[in-house]
Design goal:
The complex is a heterodimer of chains A (201) and B (1069). With 201 residues, chain A is mainly α. In chain A, 54% of the residues lie in helices and 3% in strands. Chain A has ten helices and two strands; from the N terminus they run H-H-H-H-H-H-H-H-E-E-H-H. A two-stranded antiparallel sheet of chain A has the order 1-2. In chain A, helix 2 (27-34) packs antiparallel against helix 7 (87-105), helix 2 runs parallel beside helix 8 and helix 8 (115-140) packs antiparallel against helix 9 (172-189). In chain A, 30% of the residues are buried. By secondary structure, chain B is mainly beta. Chain B has 13 helices and 50 strands. In chain B, the strands form eleven sheets. Chain B has a 22-stranded antiparallel beta barrel. Chain B has a five-stranded mixed β-sheet with strand order 10-15-16-13-14. Chain B has a four-stranded antiparallel β-sheet with strand order 3-2-5-6. The chains are: A mainly alpha (201), B mainly beta (1069). At the A-B interface, helix 1, helix 2 and helix 7 of A face strand 25, strand 29, strand 33 and strand 34 of B.
Chain lengths: 201, 1069
Amino acid sequence: MIFLVNSGCKKYLDQKPDMSLVIPGSLSDLQALLDNYRKTNLNDPDAGEISSDNYYLTTADWNNLSSDFSRMYTWQKDHLFTTFPNMWSNAYNAIYVPNVVLDNLKVITETVDNHQNWDNIKGEALFFRAKEFHQVACTWALAYDSLTSKSDLGIPLRVNSDFNIPSTRGNLEATYDTIIDDLKQSVILLPVTPLSRAVAF
Amino acid sequence: MKLTYLFTSIVLMSFSNHALSQQFKNLAGKLVTEGNEPVANATIILKSNGTISESDKKGNFALAFNGNADTLIITHIGYASMNIPVSSSTHFPLSIALSRKENIMEEVVLNTGYQQLPKERATGAFTQIDNATLNQQVSTDIISILPAIANGLSEGRKTNQGNYSTSGQILIRGLSTINGPASPLIILDNFPYEGNIENINPNDVESITLLKDAAAASIWGARAGNGVIVITTKKGRFNQKMKVELNTNVKITGKPDLFYDKSISSSDLVNVEQFLFDQGYNFSDTLSDAHTPFSPVYEILFKQRNGIISAADANSQLNVLRNHDVRNDFDKYVYNPGAEQQYAINLKGGSDNMAWLLSGGLDKDLDVLSAGYNRLTLRSENSIKLTKRLQMNTSLYFTESKSTSGKNGYGSITTSNGGLPIYTELVNPNGSPATLAKDYRQSYVDTAGEGQLLDWNYYPLTDYKHSYSITDVQDLTGNFSLSYLIFKGLSANMEYQYERQVSTGNNINDVDSYFARNLINSFYQPDGPDNFPVPIGGILDVSNTTVTSNNIRGQLTFNKSWHNNEIDAIAGSEIKQLITDGSSYRMYGYNSDILTTTPVDLVNTYNSFVTGYGMNIPDNSGITKTNNRFVSFFGNGSYTYQKKYTVSISGRRDASNIFGVNTNDKWNPLWSAGTSWLLSNENFYHFDMFPFLKIRATYGVSGNIDPSLTAVTTLSYISTSPYTMLPFAQVDNFYNPDLSWEKNRQLNIGVDFSTIQNRVSGSIDYYIKRGVDLYGPSPLDYTAGLGILYIEKNAADMIAKGMDIELNSLNVTRKIRWTSNLNLSIYHDKVTSYYLSDTNGSDFIGDGINITGIVGKPVNSVLSYKWAGLDPQTGAPRGYLDGKVSEDYNDIIYGGTSISDLVYSGPALPTVFGSLGNTVSYKGFSLIVRFTFKFGNYFEKTSINYSTLFSSLTGSSDYSKRWKNPGDEKFTNVPSMVYPADDARDQFYNGSEAMVEKGDNIRLQYITLSYDISKERFKKLPFTNIRLYCNINDLGIIWRANKDGLDPDYTIGSIPPSKNIALGARVNF
């Protein structure tokens, strides 16, 4: 009896507890997550642009800005992200999506039939993650300098969707290694013409 | 003993037959119970010469007897000792009925749902409630009778989980959780009962066992953290004559005391409205698109102002209202005494290899609002010894019930402005049902649609006839088990249980109901093409829920005793699946006579006839399905040496599809260990006061789960991307591999004792519960990327300490017998770790209904704003801001008060509670009086809120005690009325220290009087026993700490249950 239960146990417990929930199980579910342009494309931080000298404001216009933005414009050190969600959380929200996709892709077997799709999804996810890491690194980390990159602080690198794992901050070298690594992998996987039209936009 | 007996009888018999046959004759007799069952192993002593005999299996005994007047002394471990005078004129054989000793701990066999455990070998904290105690109250359901009689069990009406449901929230040893479900696990015989607990007929219940500490409950693993209630049903026994029991009773419930609700008086309300009218309050509503209704007082005043009626007429009309109280109307026209009828029959018997039981029950209840509940229960149970080693048990339990809604009671009728003004008339002077301007002004309702519409009036008195619901519930629980005796002591058991409960709810609003007429009229399209897109007809809402559970259990049971050793052990595994299916839909144009419906257009919008805004015809369809699966392994063993020392250990491991994978993968069992020592059996024990003394200690961990939390990533499709025309999705639930059950670690130290002849017996248990890994909000790292600030995790901790004391005493044991039973519990809990997402004081004000979650304070704390009395000049309430007296209510409420600035009064749950029962019996009469008590809790009363009073025309009678003139502040805390009302001022006052009251109270819970007529006394009786009984329940509070006459369990808008009287008869054949 005990042995019988043990062997069948794993499969028996894979049943989802609430039927209205879709557990991302198919490639099309994962593609749909990546196609959510609001998350993947519209979450890039603009703090860099706000703080830049690409434009200028009159004092009156500056006074009309919310306090976060007005402080960013004048390069204040703190109280820049007082509301939630904000640029910092949104950027990592955009990183969470490809992480969920990559985690769930691990349990979908690549076959001859789905091989093209499977590679494409993995490639897209890696690309999106690299792109967002790069955006975060450009905004909140020092510019890359090969002489000091091993001692300069990088950005928190989340490569997994488990939020129980605490974030750590490595050096800048590791940040750019991850970005380049993700991109290199994605280049091999992505087809010459995009399969999902979302990516093209 | 046996040998001695045999030897003695042989010797004695030879004596009587030969040498002394003239003087000696054989004294023979039979010992039976009051139920005419044989009593074996009783000792019979002849007083004069000490001759000893023992009764055999059939209860027979024999002694040599010389015919001189003498006395037989009969003693038995489980029965009261008896002295029977005998002489030469006594007729032999004697038939002696023994009465069971009360409070014999050794006799109790505990049912944990997995095994039958003799209480003497138990190490854990158990409470056993026997059939006699259960029968002291008359009730349709089994759970509602427990709070008055069960040790350590309380009924919290004011916890976050319980809301204000009439049945309350049953708690064993208080809370073990903060945010998770707090209900104990309910086991029917051997498996959790997944249907409505109302399905179980109390007449089918033999006994109830509460598993309170870890050693008792942890065998139930991840669902045992809140304690376990094991309901054991009546069973047939092998070798038993057929027995029939009939029980019938009628229970009458009195009308509720509506005047318990402290409402503003009609006269005061009319004055307030006149004042508001003079201020022009709400005049803008006359232009409202929605045709918002005005109260009757306003309508009179409008008529007067527009010159339609004279001032004198207006005044006389207002005076009629001043002298009218709607509660009198409700009492006269709506409420009636409730009546409950109960019929139950129970047949059982058994032969050498078969035991059986059949029972049936019928309940017909009609409550004070004429809401009905009819229930039929049928049960069959069979045990068959297929071979010497193989036994088969089958049982079927079928319940069918039908609930119908009743009339609209006081407090349930509302208008679009809020409540029902207290002066409302339900009946016109000519006796016809009055109308109430519910959603629109009467003038609009009378003229709208130029005669094309259905009658748009609302009749509060009669609408229930057209708007009602019927709920049918069917439950079938089937159980099949095989047990095989492998060798003496070891048996294997395989058990399967299937349960299916189907509930169908029909909510019917026929064409004459206000709901249907209002919806049809609102959708009226004067210009067509279809004038009535909501067809003229009834509206039927149907909801179906099916709960299906499957359980399979395999178990090995080992019991062995040799020399001084005894072992009881079980081990096994089980699989459980629980599926809940639900669906609901609505049908329009419903005609119940010919069963037709009409399809409607749910897609297009229609302009509302009232406001002109576009709206959709409401749809009401949905579908749900959940599937929870569990796989468990369990084991439990105890070893007793010399009947004095016992050690026990139990372990259980649960895996489920609702836990995270890390939890399922880890070998992380829930366990317990315990020990007990029967001190009084030691040779060195010479404490004669307590001939029985046992010490117990246990420690263990059990769990608690919330099936609504999910550990897997789930997504939902949002819409189609405007760029790609492809559907895209977002993540809804987040992968949480660490999500687990809450853990409840409990230490229990207890002592069981009894004095000589059980004059006083009982138990005292001290426990410390530590709830760890409780569900609670946990702040999230932004970089986790979830886009939310905190997530429900196993993140909170609490601690609870308490004592459960049970005392039973035999005060008088002569012809008049007086016994007492005291259940006393002490309970304190405290949050030890909790993440508070904000510390703004106003979020923690309240009645302790919400979880406060403040570290160091009870889970449900009563907190309030510091009170500085009324302003002597203006009568305005005053609080504190930054330590200074302030009337800046907005600042006090919004941000100016942090948690540490609040006044903490105490817990919302009682810290001392329990019950005291006294039984006096004389001959066949028995009188039981039971009190229940709660101490140490606090509650917040409600007072006048001027904002609500103005907008919804309902309020507290404190209005009459308000501050009017300087000096009033000396004897009232009720602030002055200001116009316009200041919502923050009202909120501050109603959340202030002045509102907090002590909840201490003592209730007279029930009185039961019964009279037994038995065949033993009246030989000509056609049955063994008949008991006539009368149970008066809910007699109300006899002492309370608060001076306002409030029942702390029924404060906000609820009315305490009224007295009920049940009369019945129980017949045994």
